[in-house]
Design a protein that fits this description.
about 190 residues, mainly alpha, Arc Repressor Mutant, subunit A, Tetracycline Repressor, domain 2, two-stranded antiparallel ribbon, disordered C terminus, transcription, DNA-binding
């Protein structure tokens, strides 16, 4: 087998993207304690490249969540934005990112993780304001309530066996609509 050609700095952005993608997969398959060399192997890069981009586990988790939050921010600013849609997207992300949820929960005092939390709070503020303007959420409901619901959902999903995550998330979310004064449709999810 021929040795890999070192492409130098031009490979950096592609390596970073490959590492983030690999981290999603490796942590989803092997959990929080998955060896970081497995991430590098899956990405097809050397361990040195991994540590150049992500010097620790939290850095890697922050990069994955940064992308996840980018998706949530785009949704919150879209015309189809709704509380139920936001929660559905959070659930989809949580189902495949359970180990990363645990990792960031354990690192809540880390400034990098706090910044992510601030971004989530800001996008939830946007969605709550839109839902309130549309008359689909009670005036007594504030962003802190929605953030609490999201945290509870993420926590329960992260501790549920993979095959049961979707149904458990839907059951858990079904408990909130009456409190938020929104209409429930379908399998317990909010429109």
């Amino acid at each position: 087998m021929p040795a890999k050609t070192n492409r130098g700095p031009v490979a950096g952005p592609a390596n970073r993207r490959a590492l983030i993608s690999a981290a999603r997969t490796v942590f989803a398959e092997s959990g929080y304690d998955a060896p970081l060399n497995a991430v590098a192997r899956r990405a097809g890069v050397g361990q040195g490249s991994l540590y150049r981009h992500f010097p620790d586990r939290v850095s890697l988790a922050v990069a994955v969540f940064d992308e996840n939050i980018g998706e949530l921010e785009a949704f919150a600013r879209s015309k189809r934005s709704s509380l139920g849609g936001l929660i559905e997207l959070v659930i989809e992300q949580a189902i495949v990112s359970t180990a990363l949820i645990e990792l960031t929960m354990n690192s809540a005092d880390d400034e990098r993780v706090r910044v992510l939390g601030e971004r989530v709070a800001a996008l939830v503020d946007e969605v709550v304001a839109v839902e309130r303007d549309r008359g689909r959420i009670g005036a007594e409901v504030d962003s802190a309530d929605v953030l609490l619901a999201i945290s509870m959902l993420a926590a329960i999903v992260s501790r549920t066996p993979e095959q049961d995550r979707r149904s458990v998330a839907e059951r858990a979310w079904a408990l909130f609509p009456a409190s938020f004064a929104v209409t429930v449709h379908g399998a317990g999810m909010v429109e």
